[in-house]
Design goal:
mainly alpha, 7 helices
Length: about 160
């Protein structure tokens, strides 16, 4: 795979609080296929993700002790799909991320902004384990695509 090109700016007009679009090829040719490969055995992928996250942030891991993890795995799958869709300018994904931001805010679950880098790092380590085609460029693409949605989540704190 060649080096990933910098995100292309688009001429499409968005609300001022929306991010510039990421190059659609980065999403459709790199991140979405990688996510699909990871989800081929989604139960194990998400279980391993939460295990890594819990090791990095024991307080967060404790939050899931009484949670139906099968349901939680489906929710995280949908949340990651929304993060990916948001990067392409999907307004439905934006609405869902704003709802998630509110539920994860200080008045909700209290997921502090400093937890998000750990969340991303845990996801990237798990992605690299489950995506047999993952490269350094794949991880760079993932991080670029997730960034704007994570910023939206943090802004809602």
């Amino acid at each position: 795979m060649s080096q990933i090109e910098p995100a292309k700016q688009t001429t499409k007009v968005f609300k001022s609080d929306q991010p510039a679009l990421i190059d659609p090829a980065l999403i459709e040719d790199v991140v979405r296929p990688s996510f699909n490969r990871c989800c081929a055995d989604s139960s194990e992928f998400f279980d391993d993700f939460y295990f890594r996250l819990g090791n990095r942030l024991p307080d967060v891991g404790a939050l899931f002790a009484q949670v139906d993890m099968e349901k939680q795995n489906e929710l995280i799958r949908e949340g990651i799909a929304d993060l990916i869709a948001y990067a392409s300018g999907d307004s439905n994904a934006e609405a869902e991320l704003r709802r998630l931001a509110k539920s994860h805010s200080r008045s909700g679950l209290g997921v502090a902004p400093e937890y998000y880098p750990h969340w991303i790092d845990s996801l990237m380590k798990t992605m690299r384990e489950y995506d047999p085609d993952a490269t350094d460029d794949t991880e760079v693409a993932w991080r670029r695509v997730l960034a704007s949605g994570i910023e939206l989540m943090i802004a809602g704190y």
